[in-house]
Specification:
Layout (H helix, E strand, L loop, with lengths): L4 H17 L14 H15 L6 H27 L4
Amino acid sequence: MGDPPAARAHIGLERRAECAYNLTMDDTPAPTIAHARWLEALAESEADLAAGRIVPGDVVVRDLRDGLARLESRAAAKTTRKDTPRR
C-alpha cells in the first residue's frame, strides 16, 4: 500500500530541502549603471560635505517621512479610484 500521506509529504519536503541546500549562491544582483541625475546628486552631496555644509539627521528623516506619506497617499488615491464603480 505504500507510505501514509504524512510520511510521503515529509519525504517530499526532505528532498526539496536537499535540492535547495545544494543550489549555488548566485543571488548577487547584477551591477547596474546609475542614472546621470543620481550621479549629479551624489557629486553635489559630496561637494557639500567637503565644503562643510551638512544637514541635520532629523531634517533628513522628516523629509523622508514626508515623501513616504506622499507616496502612500498617491497609492491610496489610485486604489480608491479603481474601487469606485463607474456610472
